[in-house]
Structures are given as C-alpha cells and as structure tokens.
Amino acid sequence: MPSLARAGALGKVPRPMPEGRSIYDLRGEVLVNGKPATMQTVIGHSDRIETARNAQLIFVVGKDAFVMREGSKLELTGDDSLMVSGLRLVSGALLSVFGKQQHHFSTPVATIGIRGTGLYVETQEDMSYVCTCYGTTDIAALNDPSSQETIVSQHHDAPRYILADGSSGQRIRSAPFKNHTDVELALIEALVGRTPPFNLFDEGYGSPRRY
Fold it and tell me: Quick one: what percent of the chain has pLDDT higher than 70?
C-alpha cells in the first residue's frame, strides 16, 4: 500500500490541526475504543486504536503526531494535563513525533524512554525494531534490563532490533534503516506546528524510501 503520509503531503498542504480535531487522514477500517473512527473522531490521551489490514491513520494528540500503519494496535495513556505520556504498541508499526514532554513507549519486548524525539517502531512477538529518527531515546529489552542503550541521533543514525530472547546484555542489535521516510516526518511535524531538525532536500543524504 502506498505511503499515506506521502500521498497526503502531495495532495494537500499540511497545517497545524485545528482545535477539536484529531485526524488528518484516515483510510480503511480504524477503531477507536472499539468503535469505527471517522474524520470527526477526537482521539484522547488514554484511547485504544486499531487499524485493520490495508488501513492507515494519521492523527494528532496534543503536541504529538503519528502515522499508524495497517494491522496495528496502540494503547495511549496520559494524565490530568490531557497530554499523552505513555504509549504501548501491541502490534504493527507507528511513526511518531513528540513534543518536549517526556514520554514512555513500550512494546511486548522493549521499553523506550523518549525526549523530544522522532521515532519509528515496528513490533512482533519476538522482536521490535526501533529507529530514533532524531533526538534522544533510552531503549532496553523488557525482560533483560542489562540490555540497554541510550541513543542520541540527528538523522536515523542508529536503528536497532530489540530481541525477546538472547544472552543477557546482548538483546539489542544494530539494524538497517527501513520502512519510513523524511517526507512522513515532515508532514506530521507540520501538523503540530514544527519542522524536523534536518534539511528534507539535502542532496548529500541518501533519502530514505519506505518499502
């Protein structure tokens, strides 16, 4: 399926989401708290979201923005500020950009502490893929706290696999860049009134392409 974010970026100029709106683009079957979502659905800081096969969702909550891929399940948590503070990606893939507030991200096999970051995560039962697109993350294997690493990235510098099983202290492995683009990051940053900290048209950089 073509990248929703790229199609949206080419089809309409992204601007900060107006007050009272959450969804920028929705295609296919998407559930929010078990109910079918529409373009008017407001997504809150403690909602559950699911995308069916061939469905994708681009949405904003507070100062955070997301591209949720097909076949994904996401649980959000927050506090009285109505901002997202925690995310659990149960399955599938999520591209995210975050404001300055600290966030905690988890998958079935990994935990990720986030500080003002662009982040792409894919997860399966036995492995998660994490790309710190820019910013700082603290990543660790869920069942092996000795497997941990702090990533400081400017531009997709250190993608990682986090494994469910393996030797103690050895469950984080180097990974290739894959399955997300700078165009998508620029789009969702624009939805919260920001720009990514890199030149989108830097000819010295081999622009990533989503498979």
Answer: 87
Cα separation, 182 vs 174, whole angstroms:
20
The residue whose two tokens read 């392409």 is 209
Q: pLDDT tens, 106-131? A: 999 999 999 889 999 999 999 999 99
- Cβ pair 132, 95 in contact under 8 A: no
Percent of the chain with pLDDT over 90: 80
In the chain, where do the E strands start and end?
A: 23-27, 30-32, 35-36, 48-51, 56-61, 64-68, 73-78, 84-97, 102-106, 110-123, 127-141, 144-153, 160-163, 172-174
pLDDT at 12: 61
Domains along the chain?
Answer: 4-191 (2.60.120.1440)
This prediction has a pTM of 0.90
Q: Contact, 147 vs 128, CB < 8 A? A: no
- Cβ atoms of residues 188 and 58 within 8 Å: yes
What does pLDDT average to over the chain?
A: 89
Distance CA 156, CA 129 (A): 13
